Amino acid sequence: MFNIVEYEEVMHEKDCVFVDVRSPKEYKASTIKGAINIPVLLDDEREMVGTLYVRSSVEEARTKGIEYISKRLPEIFEQFQRLYSVEKKKVVVFCARGGMRSSSIHSLLYSLGIKVYKLKGGYREYRRYINENFDNITKNVKFIVLYGKTGVGKTEYLKELERRGFDILDLEGAANHRGSLLGSVSLGDCNTQKTFETEVFHKLLNRKSDIVFVEGESKRIGRIIIPDFIWNNMMKGEKIWIEDSIENRCDILIKEYIKDENSIRELIRALENIKKYLSYKKVEEYKKMIEEGNYKEACINLMLNYYDPMYMNGFGKKQFIKIIENKNREETLSSIIEVYNQMI
Questions:
Q1: Which of 77, 284, 313, 327 is spaced 20 to 30 A from 148 at the CA atom?
Q2: Where are the transmembrane segments (predicted)?
Q3: Strand partners, 64
Q4: How far, in Å, CA of 171 to CA of 230, rounded?
C-alpha cells in the first residue's frame, strides 16, 4: 500500500498535520496530540453503521457508511484540499486501528490528487507508542515539587516559571481539573485518562532539561490517576512549601472560581459534594453566602473548615528542602528558582 507511515517516522516533522477521521465523540475522548478532526462518520452515523455491522452484515454496514460519507464528501474534500494545497501540510490520516475509515478516505483522496499519508495501526498504535515509551522518558527527570495550602497560587507560579523558560508539568491543566471536590467548577469536563497521559507524555518528551517544576498533587486528580512512575518520581523530588496569608489565598480562589453567573451556580451545586465531610447546616450556610455575593466569607470558612484540614492531612509530613513565606511574589519566585540553580 502507498504512503503508509508509522508514528515515529513523522512525529517530529513540523509541517506534518494529523487528521483524525473518527467521529467527534471519539476525537473528544482522546486523540493524537495536535490532531484535527475531519470525521468520516458523525456520532449517530457511526452508531448506526456499527449496529448494522453487528446485527446485519458487513456489506450492509459498508453500504450505509458510503451513503453517509457521500452527503458530506464535498465538505470533507474541501477541508483536506485546504490543508494540502493552501497550507502545504503533510497530511496523515488515522482512525481507530488503521482500518476502513482511514483506508477509504486515504484511497479516495489519493486518487483525486491529494497525496495524503495513512498512519499504520491508527490511534491504537499511537497509544502503544506512548505506553512503551512513557516510563523511559520519565527516568531522568528530577522534579521540583511545589506544595502549599489551597489558594497559594501554585499553578500561577508554574505558569510564570514556564514564561521564564523553565520546564514545568501542569498536571491539573493536563487533567482539566483542580483535584478537589469543587475542582471542576468553571473548567468543564475533566479530561479522559488517555488525554491526560497524552498531554503529560508530550510535555515531558519535549522538555529542554531534566529538571521539571510540578505541583504537589494527590495521586488522583478528579477521575484521573497519575501513573505510578511519575508519582513515585515526584515523591523523590525536591519539595518546596509555600505559605501565604488567608486573605491572599482568598483573592486567588475567588478570581479562579467566580467567573460569571454560570460558575456561581456550578459552585453552589458542587458544594453538595462536601456534605459527606461537613454538616448539612454548614454547607447550606456557605451556599447562602455565595448566593448573596459574600464570596470572601464563604471562601475563608471553606478553607478553615474543609480545605486546610484536608490538605494538611495529606501533605503535612513531607520533608521540605525550603519553606517560603510569600511576602512578595517576585521574591518567592526567586527563592523557588534558587532551588533549581542548586540542582544544576
A1: 284
A2: none
A3: none
A4: 11
